[in-house]
Amino acid sequence: MRRIHLVVVLGMVLISGPVWADEGISKVNGHISADAGRQYGDLETVNGGVSVGDRTRTGDVESVNGGIEIGARASTGGISTVNGGVTVGAGTVVSGDIETVNGSVLVERGSQVSGGVETVNGSIGLIGTQLGKGIETVNGDITVGVDSHVGGDIRIEKSTFGFWSKPSRKPRVVIGPRAVVDGSLRFEREVALYVHRSARIGAVSGATPRPFDSDVAPQD
């Protein structure tokens, strides 16, 4: 898994308060709130979360220790955090990747993400989402929900029990009704894979798909 890149140079800025430059906001300590309907540059914090209001336009949104919440019908650059989850509201456009190490990712219906989605220890859920690239995780469950389209591969890597990863139960992967995965599904560890009969997927390696017909995948 490629290294998650964050703007950690914030820690080198010897200030205690926010800095505004070209409508961007940078902090070392503290939460960032981007007001609904406004336009901003990059939003960056080290110790704190980020909240972006509905219909707001921003550059990249980044944190180290904090969750990130994007409102509905917003527009952002790439989204990344280390310790925290990411939630993207309905009808939002993300021009870049969504990345976290320890946290889940949920993208709501009607959203478009030009890049991919990556976690280490966290689930990934897409609902009616258009994803330009692929999905990668180590220990997280993956749900490609109803009417979602993944433009790249789905990959679950083998856990190395290193600094960023920890042992966990067998991941659960669900490809829902009318979902499409253009790329391959590659699993380097044992997973439970469920694929709806109306879904379309690429080649599968490392798992045997279990077909289902209902709106919800069966439990293990």
Quick structural overview:
With 220 residues, the protein is mostly beta strands. It has strands spanning 19-21, 24-29, 32-34, 43-47, 50-52, 61-65, 68-70, 75-76, 79-80, 86-88, 93-94, 98-99, 105-107, 112-113, 117-118, 124-126, 130-131, 135-137, 142-144, 149-150, 154-156, 172-175, 180-181, 185-187, 192-196, 204-205, 210-212.
Structure, described:
The protein has an eleven-stranded mixed beta sheet, with no helix packed on it. Strands 3-5-7-10-13-16-19-22-25-27 form a ten-stranded parallel beta sheet, with no helix packed on it. A six-stranded parallel beta sheet has the order 8-11-14-17-20-23, with no helix packed on it. The protein is about 0% helix and about 35% strand. The N terminus is likely disordered. The protein has a domain of about 100 residues. It has no helices and 27 strands. The protein is globular. The two termini are about 25 Å apart. The protein is mostly beta strands and about 220 residues long. A hairpin with a 2-residue loop joins strand 1 and strand 2.
**Beta-strand residue percentage:** 35-45%
What is the radius of gyration? 18 Å
Q: In angstroms, what separates the terminal alpha carbons?
A: 27 Å
Contiguous helical run count: 0
**What's the total count of β strands?**
27
